[in-house]
Amino acid sequence: MATAELAGTLRSSEEAVALAGELRRLTRVATIIALLTSPAAYFFFHQEVGLGMGKALLATAAAVIGFRGLIDLIVRRLIPWPSLFGTEERRLREEDIVNRRRSWSWSFFYRLVARLGGGITLWYLVQLAKGDQGVTWWGTVGAFFDGIAKEGPKAGKYAPLLLLFFFYFIFNFLILLGPIMWMGISQIRGYEPGDA
């Protein structure tokens, strides 16, 4: 009975290694597709949108990187993460850690973009409700970033106060909860399978 359970674990471990290899191959194909479609994105930004050559190249690079990250997020949502428990390959474990960090970063970035886009869309809808007929969504985006550029230097005078508040917050947090955290961290022990 123990041998059958061990064989099942080994088979699932081998399947996880194979799945990790297939995911790596899939992400490479997604990168190649993103690079092959980049000239079309460049011509769209340069000809249709009317950006200059440098801005069109930057927009194309951002679109390729964004597409690659979106594909990574979709693949990670549809295909479960392979469990690499029991594998001895150090390279696979390191790749798994990097992929999980990359997935977290992309999901954070896309959540931030979705919230920013939602706020701008809400602002655009409020302008439409007020009766501004000549307003467009892209014009609202431009006005939003222009407003940030104008107000940025004015907000800079509060930077030392915010920095001071941040340091006071961190120091108070460390004074209050530092010893408790240190006791908790010092009591962490790692267990290997079979230690029991």
Give a verbal description of the structure.
The protein has a domain at 2-110. Helix content is 82%, strand content 0%. The protein is built from six helices and no strands. The longest helix is centred in the middle third of the chain and has 41 residues, at 90-130. The two termini are 19 Å apart.
Compute the number of helices.
Answer: 6
Poorly predicted parts: 1-11
The rounded distance between the terminal residues' Cα atoms is 19 Å
What is the overall silhouette? flat
Provide the β-strand percentage band. Answer: under 5%
CA gyration radius, whole angstroms: 25 Å
Please state the average pLDDT score: 76
Strand-pairing-aware structural class = mainly alpha
| Helix share bin | over 70%
Q: What is the succession of H and E elements?
A: HHHHHH
Q: Give the strand tally.
A: 0
Give the biggest beta sheet: none
Key structural traits:
flat; mainly alpha; 82% helix; 196 residues; disordered N terminus; 6 helices
Helix-strand layout with pairing:
Blueprint: H1 2-36, H2 38-48, H3 53-78, H4 90-130, H5 137-155, H6 159-186
Helix pairs in contact: 1-3, 2-3, 3-4, 4-5
